[in-house]
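Rather than argue in generalities, we have chosen a single entry, letters for residues, whole numbers for local backbone shapes, without further comment.
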Amino acid sequence: MSPVLAAPTTAGEPASAAPVLSTDRLTTLAVWTTIAVITLIVLSRRGVLSPGRLRDTVSRRVADLPWVGWFGAGLGLMILWRLAGGVGAEVAHGVGLAPGSLGAQATAIWVGHAVILAVLLAAGSWRPARTVGVSAGFVFRRQDLLVGLGAMLLTAGPVLATLDWAALIADLLHGSPEAQIAHDLLGALAAQRFTLAWWAVAIAVTIVTPIVEETTYRGFIQSGLVSAAGSPALGIALSAGVFALVHVGAAEPRALPGLFVLGLAFGLAFERTGRLGVPIVMHAIFNAGMMVMAHLAG
């Protein structure tokens, strides 16, 4: 779960009360677009976005496991995650939590996360699996905190510009501004703040979810796609598409282009650094930022 907030209006102003093309909105859009263009130009000139250079500088090894093994493991985690979340929802219902309430969502999230983390820890305790994982970049270094922060700062412009453009197009087609919050869970968090359930979800979203999602989508799915395609660039693009598609239903359609760009950034950071810790940190910062923006907008 990567929460996304699209802000067509100013904070605290109801969406229906503001025009689609307000001055504040156009100014914000122009600022983020300018930052995005400058960022992409700089990264392009430094060769960061070059597919050929990316192929030559990949610093992790995925050949120790067939592509179907990587992809199958990722797909298995996705299915297990959904099943465990369903069990968590039943547990919430069994203890009297209302379906769809923040407490019920927190229970489902934590049960799902706990199962996946247990599986990953069990796999990591097996030496052959741990050896393959380390070679493939399943590592975290202290410097990843700073590298991830820097990478997320560079990513912010393109992602937020994409979200704003997608929201503008959606609003123009709809004829009026839609709700600012484009993710169900963010909406629930904005409506019920600083309760026990709120803290449970906040900790999960900002700490545990990035670990689970990046291990699944970048660590396994992307490794399989890179191996199958024989191209890091194509593998990154395909895994970013998977990352966006799995959010269909939880996030509004207008948020999906931004999630795709976000997936591209996470995948590129993983391939360039060879360490899964970098996109995990980026993901954590992004989710925390969206929670802050939802708090301000709500």
